[in-house]
Amino acid sequence: NSFCTLLAFQSAQRVWMDSVKSAAGAAANVAAGAAGLAAGAMSPVKDRLVEELGHARSKLSEQAAAIEELRAEKLQLLRELEARKKQEITERLANRLAGVFEFAMGKALLKVKAAAKDPFMPRFVKRSVDTLIESVWPDVKAEVREAALAEIAPKQPLAHGDPPCCTTPRIYLKYTLFPYDRSIWRKMRHPVWWVFNVVSVIPRYGIPQIMYVMLFMILDKGDEFQLLQFISQFKSLQFVSLGVLSALVGSVQYYICTTRIPQTCDSFAPQEQMFTLFLFVVQEVVVWLAFALSFRAKKKGGKYYQMTKQARQQLKHEALDADNVAVQKKKVHKIIFGDAVQSLTFEHNAAVERESKKRMLYFLLYDFATFTLCALLTVWAFSRNMLADDESAGIDDADGLFAHYNWRFTATLYWIKAFYGLLAFPFLVLIIPGVSAVVSHARPT
């Protein structure tokens, strides 16, 4: 019985194990089928989730771009608002400075008129004095404003720049003769300055003409101040050397040759050579060329207190980096004040500019008229010499075209040149410091 029972138990156990295995296989098959069904069912869901995630990312990118655009727009609005506020403050400060200046200059005009007139003057003389003062007062105001603002404006360092190649002799000569930072007493300590100025007044052999033609060649032809300085110095020197000194030397020569026995005026009288006469014409062409260039030249001087972009950026960085609020305000106020001064200093005054150009044109026309007069006198002297019947006016073709000129004709040329030099006296006003600035409004470089 026990054996039968054991066999029955083992067979039952085997049947149970087989049923368990078959059930496990069926369950595995069911699970695999369910997993396959679940995977098939989840695939569209996964694709949908990926698609939704892509849409979400694109929306986030669009929103981020919109936020960045809005930020840039708001930042631009803030910058424009800051610029408008600074412009308003600058204009308000500039208007206030201009108002104070106009009030002070109005008071000064009344005092100048009162000081220039005498109580016992006739009325028409008083009116003439008032008219004269009022005609030049806009130019005086422009110069006084420039000088006043130059004193209160924040100074900027000079940007000398790098010189071009092979200009050392030119730079040396220009700085020796026309230094921007040396007084007349310091210039007089330099021997080259003395050599140039002494040699250039010798009224012989065309030396002044040669010296100043060379000087014109080294000038900056686009700088108004350098051209006008060249014109004023050359024409004033012409009055001294070609006019006054030539008249003195010629008078002494005439005295010597007429008092000698026998008279030697045919040999020792003042005479003009054809070479120096040619240089005389060349110098006039150079001066007229300088006049023509000055009308198109630029004002390159007077900007040493103009606030540069680098200085402005430096002040902004210093204001941002400063920990103290007072220091930040001080830097910002310095920028605003510099802008206000710059707007007042460099505003374009068309009327004053036109008037200064017109004055220089008058000087040019005057010089051309005097030159034409002397040229007509030369033609008259030449025709008179050619039509003379005496032997001293005869032509000797063997000695050249100009050999027939007698000493009277060459002496006449000498005195015509001296007369032209004396006619240059109006140009002396251009070397007077205050008057030259009012006449030309050229800013020193």
UniProtKB/TrEMBL annotation:
<keyword id="KW-1133">Transmembrane helix</keyword>
<protein>
    <submittedName>
        <fullName>Uncharacterized protein</fullName>
    </submittedName>
</protein>
<feature type="transmembrane region" description="Helical">
    <location>
        <begin position="239"/>
        <end position="256"/>
    </location>
</feature>
<feature type="transmembrane region" description="Helical">
    <location>
        <begin position="418"/>
        <end position="439"/>
    </location>
</feature>
<keyword id="KW-0472">Membrane</keyword>
<feature type="transmembrane region" description="Helical">
    <location>
        <begin position="192"/>
        <end position="219"/>
    </location>
</feature>
<keyword id="KW-0812">Transmembrane</keyword>
<keyword id="KW-0175">Coiled coil</keyword>
<feature type="coiled-coil region">
    <location>
        <begin position="53"/>
        <end position="91"/>
    </location>
</feature>
<feature type="transmembrane region" description="Helical">
    <location>
        <begin position="361"/>
        <end position="382"/>
    </location>
</feature>
<feature type="transmembrane region" description="Helical">
    <location>
        <begin position="276"/>
        <end position="295"/>
    </location>
</feature>
